[in-house]
Amino acid sequence: MPVASPIEPTGDPRPIAVWAEGIRKRYRTGFWLNQTIESLAGCSLEVYRGETFGLLGPNGAGKTTLLKILLGIVRPTSGRGGVFGYPLGNRRARYRVGYLPENPYFYDYLTAWEFLEFAAGLFEIPASVRRQRIPETIDLVRLDRSTARQKPLKQYSKGMLQRLGMAQALIADPDVLFLDEPMSGLDPMGRYQMRETILALKERGKTIFFNSHILADVEKICDRVAILARGDLICSGSLGDLLGTEDRYQVRGRGGQLDMLKEWMPTVRLESNYWQGELQGNVEDFLASLRLMDAQLVSLSLTRPTLEEFFLQKLQEVGIAESR
Prior knowledge:
- By secondary structure, the chain is of the alpha/beta class.
- It has two domains: 16-240, Rossmann fold (3-Layer(aba) Sandwich), CATH 3.40.50; 248-303, no CATH class.
- 35% of the residues lie in helices and 29% in strands.
- It has twelve helices and 14 strands.
- It has helices at residues 63-71, 91-94, 112-122, 127-140, 145-150, 158-170, 188-203, 215-221, 239-243, 258-264, 283-292, 307-317; strands at 16-29, 35-48, 52-56, 78-83, 86-87, 97-100, 176-180, 207-211, 224-229, 232-238, 248-255, 269-271, 274-278, 295-303.
- A hairpin with a 5-residue loop joins strand 1 and strand 2 (35-48).
- The model is unreliable at 1-10 (pLDDT under 50).
């Protein structure tokens, strides 16, 4: 029987789809296996049903290890967790899960259609259901049906193989998708198509948990993110929580008086005949002040820190990335 998650939702009315509490993972290493490396150091997180959750971190942070533990592929040294009410490693949970590894393996001489038939057989999907689901899934990931039936996989591009990998993760119509670096190695068009596929799945109510190094894509599609560094989750939350929702304006103009401008922009910078900086204060009052000092506004844009800037800042705080 399913077991309920022991972690209570933190103010979010949605039920929890994936949870982890105090997950640790240590590996033995060395010639005599007498040394240990700690890959994860007590990670706890919650992913709500229907949300897109991005796990970020530098290489070696433990992202793939955590994902594999949640999938039940790797056993934790300690800690607990679950997927849709089932404990980690439960076989019944796997029927509700789709997984795209970072480097999926494909049989070169199969066609995409044959490969999806094989994947559907592993899930014991009836033939009558396969006949409808395979073409629907091929359409969803933007593969051509004719190509999928005729072209062997050894002739596929990296982007086509990645879309096929997404198709096999979707073949059992899972409730939650685990994607390990789904944009890895893709060109801009491939990244765009993968983002559109993830957004389409989100509209269908799927829960999506993925790792990525491409922070611009994460910022566009994720509801919440977490940053993993040296095996520790150093922060998590919505983009609004982490990056801030307060209105901030970057302004650029020319003319006026530098002393008065500094009252509005303490970090004002001069470039040729122009000045620019971040506004501190009310926009309407600032514009009135510009008229009084006979200054001209060139541009005013709403801005906030990017996810990349925030990510690097957090790594600097824990001594991983050096500040410039």
